[in-house]
């Protein structure tokens, strides 16, 4: 699915990814961890570039249209897969067929009663759920997510992660909550200063390794 070989990315003179080699097979569920600035978001964007047509991307800042309803923001996940007339009809008034597809997603993300609320009136956590719902609705074979549960209560984040994992064949997320990441994902990729510092089954990631990954340079 992804086969990176010594991939480097720079912003101007600043090298951010420094020779990343990484293979991710179809069907894998993997999480990227590492200190802030290590290059997690840059790596996810690189993966997205490589397989854009097959990917749904959950943005760290949600990337929602604040003036539209939660329903319409989820609907946007498949805008390019419907005809213009279908899109216009649904923009004016959500049609039965789309409601029958989108309502269960709102139920799954725990937002059914907010389906027609304007996004600008939702809390950060609720907006993040809508961003997750939009990615699920896209029905892509790959979901990439940049800290997609960062604004969700810790005791609800696990459930939402489970939903994301079951909504696409291949799932790759960046996360800052290490314990949650280890509990939810079988494979852990640790980035440090633009390099792959570790790439292990989560049960093999010990406290010492984590301390090393996150140590101050
Ligand atoms: P992470 O997601 O692990 O926090 P990022 O991939 O966002 O890391 O960033 C890695 C490094 O690249 C940081 O030092 C950051 O400041 C820098 N960086 C990220 N985006 C840009 C950009 N658009 N222009 C310049 N530097 C950037
Ligand atoms: Mg980031």
Quick summary:
The protein has 217 residues and is an alpha/beta fold. It has one domain (2-214): P-loop containing nucleotide triphosphate hydrolases (Rossmann fold), CATH 3.40.50.300.
Please explain how this structure is put together:
With 217 residues, this protein is of the alpha/beta class. It has 8 helices and 8 strands. The strands form 2 sheets. Strands 4-5-6-3-7-8 form a 6-stranded mixed beta sheet, with helices on both faces. It has a two-stranded antiparallel ribbon with strand order 1-2. The longest helix is centred in the middle third of the chain and has 14 residues. Bound molecules: adenosine-5'-diphosphate and magnesium ion.
Task: Map the helices and strands.
Elements: E1 2-11, E2 14-24, E3 29-33, H1 40-50, E4 55-58, H2 70-75, H3 84-92, H4 96-108, H5 124-137, E5 142-146, H6 154-166, E6 170-174, H7 178-184, E7 187-192, E8 195-201, H8 207-213
Helix pairs in contact: 4-5
The chain binds adenosine-5'-diphosphate and magnesium ion.
Magnesium ion (MG) binds at residues 40-41, 146, 174.
Write down the overall geometry: globular
The description of the largest β-sheet is: 6 strands, mixed
Distance between the termini: 33 Å
Total count of domains: 1
What is the average per-residue confidence, as pLDDT, rounded to a whole number? 96
Number of helical stretches of at least 4 residues: 8
Name of the CATH superfamily? P-loop containing nucleotide triphosphate hydrolases
Strand line-up of the largest beta sheet: 4-5-6-3-7-8
What name does CATH use for the topology? Rossmann fold
The ligands found in this model are: adenosine-5'-diphosphate, magnesium ion
Let me know the number of strands.
Answer: 8
In terms of DSSP E residues, the strand content is 15-25%
- Summing up helix and strand content along with how strands pair, one would put the structural category as alpha/beta
Q: How does CATH name the architecture? A: 3-Layer(aba) Sandwich
Task: Estimate the helix proportion, in percent.
Answer: 25-40%
- How much is the radius of gyration in Å? 18 Å
- SSE string: EEEHEHHHHEHEHEEH
Outline the low-pLDDT stretches: none
CATH class: Alpha Beta
